[in-house]
Design goal:
- This protein starts with 13 loop residues before the first helix and ends with a strand.
- It has one domain.
- The strands form two sheets. The protein has a three-stranded antiparallel β-sheet, with no helix packed on it. The chain has a two-stranded antiparallel sheet with strand order 1-2.
- The radius of gyration is 15 Å and the shape is globular.
- It has 86 residues and is of the alpha+beta class.
- It is built from three helices and five strands.
């Protein structure tokens, strides 16, 4: 595999699902994490857009991504479902 390979990503992340493990590693070595944020940024009405990077794994496929608002003692759930593409 060439190190100069360019990767394009679909809005829904489906193109990343088609990469093998080595290609995914190369993708993340070459890109900043703005693509990571794309799938984990959700709007909280009182706080604006936040990255929901914390998550728990339930079973094999299910993930719950959440944001902890320590100032207001709240937890917001941004995604509950299948593993996000990245």
């Amino acid at each position: 595999m060439s190190n100069d390979k360019d990767f394009e990503i679909d809005e829904d992340g489906s193109s990343l699902r088609n990469l093998n493990e080595d290609e995914r590693k190369l993708f993340f070595e070459r890109k900043d994490f703005s693509i990571f944020e794309l799938f984990r940024k959700y709007n909280i009405p009182t706080l604006g857009k936040k990255i929901f990077e914390w998550h728990i794994k339930i079973g094999i496929k299910t993930r719950v991504h959440f944001f902890i608002d320590k100032d207001n003692s709240k937890i917001y759930i941004g995604h509950c479902g299948e593993h996000l593409p990245i």
